[in-house]
Amino acid sequence: MFKRIASLLLMVLALSSCELGIFGELGNGVSVSQEIEVGDFDRISIPSFVDVYYTQTSDDLSVTLTCDENLSKYYKIEVRNAELIVDCRRAFYTKIDTYLRVCSPSISGVKISGSGDLYIDKALTIDNSFTIESSGSGDAEIADLTAASATISLTGSGDAKIDRMLVESAEFKSSGSGDIEGKEIT
């Protein structure tokens, strides 16, 4: 009995002192920001844990990833069918906040199927419709949205919060545990 307890204790101590994660590489804690070259897009898809900060600009297009220096090679950020996809190639553990700063003239929608959050803290003005689809646990927070119409559909546990929304028509659907919160909707 004593040998089993001693063996178990030694195994726990050995595993707790490991520098490499059991299921993936461990971030080194050194923050790096890297500009990612991408083509034009009008939607953003977040099937990962990476948070996205979006800013509407007059004509600039830029995508910048901030992450652990040694983990940047594992992020997969690309445009497919006019959709900016923010994904990861394998499992790893980060030591710093990982996020993507995205600037573009406009977007028509966001799809969140992972745990990454979307933040739009400046005014977003769209001529047509804007859609938020969330089937993951990631949240969407928008400060000010002006569009012809808006659709918010939540089927996961992620929440949608919009401080101000000016639209001609809006549709809200929630079949998951996520909440939709709007402060000023006209």
Structure, explained:
The chain has 1 helix and 15 strands; from the N terminus they run αβββββββββββββββ. With 186 residues, the chain is mainly beta. Mean pLDDT is 88; it is low at 9-21.
List the helices and strands and how they pair.
Layout: H1 2-16, E1 25-26, E2 31-36, E3 43-46, E4 51-56, E5 62-68, E6 75-80, E7 83-88, E8 92-93, E9 99-104, E10 109-112, E11 118-125, E12 129-134, E13 140-154, E14 160-174, E15 180-185
Parallel strand pairs: 1-8, 3-7, 3-10, 4-9, 4-11, 10-12, 11-13, 12-13, 13-14, 14-15
Antiparallel strand pairs: 2-5, 5-9, 6-7
Q: Would you summarize the structure shown here?
A:
This protein has 186 residues and is mainly β.
CATH topology: Pectate Lyase C-like
What radius of gyration results from the CA coordinates?
20 Å
Helix-and-strand structural type: mainly beta
Per DSSP, the total helix count is 1
Rounded to the nearest angstrom, the distance between the terminal CA atoms is 70 Å
pLDDT averaged over residues: 88
| Biggest sheet record | 13 strands, mixed
**Count of individual domains:** 1
Q: Which CATH architecture is right? A: 3 Solenoid
The CATH class is identified as Mainly Beta
Helix content: under 10%
Secondary-structure element order, N to C? HEEEEEEEEEEEEEEE
- How many strands appear in the DSSP assignment? 15
**Quick one: overall form?**
globular
Uncertain segments are: 9-21
Strand content: over 45%
